[in-house]
């Protein structure tokens, strides 16, 4: 079973956003952003790209499920989301994400 789905939706300001939804309970939602959001519950980088998955709430809205180890659970889910997005979206269409690729200069002395 595919663990996540992606979708686009306008936010409250009318701006189009890109989301990743966890299909299993508690149905956490990550929002794809180009910089980490200060104070967010989660900001997981996507390896090699100037992209992060930040906390977008749950399917029920901007709520936080109440569980004893939620901080560990959210970190684990968002790390998996990042790996899944990289493998299933970025590697499938690298041209689409080329502008977000972190450029490394092999001749740099720093």
Describe, in plain words, how this protein is organized in 3D:
Strands 1-2-3-5-4 form a five-stranded antiparallel beta sheet, covered by helices on one side. By secondary structure, it is α+β, with helices and mostly antiparallel strands. The protein is globular. Helix content is 19%, strand content 27%. The mean pLDDT is 90. It has one domain. It has one helix spanning 70-90, and strands at 4-10, 16-22, 28-33, 43-45, 52-58. It contains one helix and five strands; from the N terminus they run βββββα. The longest helix has 21 residues, at 70-90.
Short synopsis of the structure:
With 110 residues, this protein is α+β, with helices and mostly antiparallel strands. 19% of the residues lie in helices and 27% in strands.
Question: What topology does this entry show?
Answer:
Elements: E1 4-10, E2 16-22, E3 28-33, E4 43-45, E5 52-58, H1 70-90
Antiparallel strand pairs: 1-2, 2-3, 3-5, 4-5
Task: Tell me, rounded to a whole number, the average pLDDT.
Answer: 90
Which sequence of strands runs across the widest sheet?
1-2-3-5-4
User: What is the rounded Rg?
Assistant: 15 Å
- Structure summary, number of beta strands: 5
Question: Span from first to last CA?
Answer: 44 Å
Unreliable stretches (pLDDT < 50, length at least 5) are: none
